[in-house]
Amino acid sequence: MMYSQKIQNLSESATIAISTLASELKAKGRDILSFSAGEPDFDTPQVIKDEAIRALNSGFTKYTAVAGILELREAIVKKLKKDNGLSYTPRQVLVSNGAKQSLFNIFQALIDNGDEVIIPAPYWVTYPELVVYSGGKPVFISTDESTHFKITAKQLKNTITPKTKILVLTTPSNPTGMVYTKAELTEIAEVLKDTKIWVVSDEMYEKLVYGVDFTSVASISDDMMKRTITVNGLSKAVAMTGWRMGYLASVDDKLIKMMDNLQSQCTSNINSITQKASIMALNGDADNDIEMMRDAFEKRRDLGCELINNIGGLSVQKPQGAFYLFINIKGVNKFGGDSMKFCSELLSKEGAALVPGSAFGMEGYVRFSFACSAEQIIEGMKRIERFVRG
What we know:
Helices cover 42% and strands 14% of the residues. It is α/β, with parallel strands linked by helices. α3 runs antiparallel to α11 (272-282) and α12 (287-308) runs parallel beside α14.
């Protein structure tokens, strides 16, 4: 049997692989604490679940428009205007089965063989995989703690070539939790002027920010509005991971239509019940629940940072958003910065699952998700400290 080369080149998500291994060990009776998954531990707000039940009981169980029902796209348009200062029409919005499908649609619609896609590192594991699968070439810009893991306008300018097609920006970042300021985005926008480079702005964690202002990339200027495809969803901030609701928006009507055509031949519309329930979250009915979760995550962030920075050999910059600690392990000499070895031995010896920084394109670091209780964070840090000192 012969398989396509591109499917053979596609790797399993490292975060899912670690979570799966942790689950397998737990099933065998091991005492495992997993800090690897990017999933809130909170339940979906009750008002959203109630709306789903109403939709189900009313018989709203049929096919819908591929891009999503009009009522949902109108709610997204209102949200983008109110929260982000972005003006779209419902026909400029495409609802997909999570932000992953939104990204898949984008890369499939824009990338030709050999096109270059600039991706700041560290990066979410899915970006380069989808770029390669679409025939593109990921071009990474390395960052470090001196810039809080954010690229500079100068780095971007020096990386652009005639083959550059797309720049991917993630704010707040997964895995570092860092947030681009309006000034930083303005400098990046200046570099992109007079180019034909698209910007894919992944803003999935926008509601989970701590003590900083969030700026949507497309809001920087009219030029950025034209070139930016905004990607968002309800998985993280509203604890709706299993509902599979993501969306994208672009003022390029033709691009939206082409991606709609692609999705129509792939999955068609997302779950009809999810669409009805999502309207409640977008309209603000769950805002109190969202703020409760954000506040809890902020407290957990502070706790995790304090504990990590008290462990010799480890350190972490306090993230400004999301729910991850990107921990520097370079001071633990016995591992030489090998993040996979660190995570493998930690899981084996202490039963704590973290994700190696190598999965995000940056050695010397590991990712710890604090989307769990304070008690679990404290116990996890105890295990990490024993492991490091041992």
